[in-house]
Amino acid sequence: MEKRPFIIDCDTGTDDAIAILAALGSDAIRVRALTSVNGNVNENFTSRNNRDLVGYLGADVEVARGAKIPFYPRAGYYDATHGSEGLGDVTLPAAENVPFTKETAPELIRRIAEEEEGRLELLVVGPMTNIAIALSMYPELKEKIRHIWFMGGAALGGNMTPTAEFNIWVDPVAAKLVIASGIPMTMVGLDVTLKAALNREDEQEIRSFGNKGAVLAADILDYMIRRYADGGEDALMHDALAAAAAVCPQCLVCHDYFVDVECQGEYTAGHTMVDRRGRTGKKPNVSVAMELDLPVFKQWLKDCLKQCG
């Protein structure tokens, strides 16, 4: 089976890194590039994390730097969830022999989309700033991207405000532009990702695989599990679940809805409006994940990590 070409656009924190490792180990995904964006931590760290992951695994993947600030003015949203530099307390060897591309993330997305002639898919697991810039600079891109799989939003609730999920909340303007682009897309939000938790037994099983990618994933999971024990976020596989949506559809139940993003309001900016009852009268534009088969997802993830590095 020919692998499908992907660019992973990410604000590489803990679960982003595990999503990258899973994609690199997948039989179905050919990772063409990693593009960094500001989000979980500063872009200086997310780009470095991407470069060091590629170097550590010896992967043949291009690495491009992306947006340092969102379109939407936000301040003070970095916290300790992913540690000070994104990978918890895990430190990778500096991959100084892995160069960043001369192209920015939007430029690289355009170039690879042209090379792939309509086959390129995007796995977007951070704020959508890079994608919005690319579509604004090169509007013809929307005809050259096959599908966008994104982690973000929620039909119900939020984790930054009562109505907004983090990735969308950081840059709702970018998300609104991308979601309105007409590109086929699937939203994997908090409705399912809050159920995608791994535990200590999973971490130990993954570690037992012994290969570089699996051991690294286990080290990151160990941090996440200790974080949860200290009152922080659980070991939630937000971003790996978005990757699974693309190649393991049996782990999710999705429904087609009209989705838009609210960009104003103290309590509503960053809210993904998911029209589950057809009240707007607008045609569905997003496939929205609403139910998760956790055992199927866990098995997919472990199978991928077993083959990574």
UniProtKB/TrEMBL annotation:
Gene3D superfamilies, sorted: Ribonucleoside hydrolase-like
InterPro entries found in the cross-reference section: I/U_nuclsd_hydro_CS, Inosine/uridine_hydrolase_dom, IUNH, Ribo_hydro-like
Pfam families, per the entry: IU_nuc_hydro
GO molecular function term, any single one: hydrolase activity
Hydrolase in keyword set: yes
Coiled coil: none
Sequence ranges assigned to domain Inosine/uridine-preferring nucleoside hydrolase in this UniProt record: 7-298
Keyword Chloroplast: no
Keywords per UniProt: Glycosidase, Hydrolase
Name assigned to this protein: Nucleoside hydrolase
Organism: Enterocloster hominis
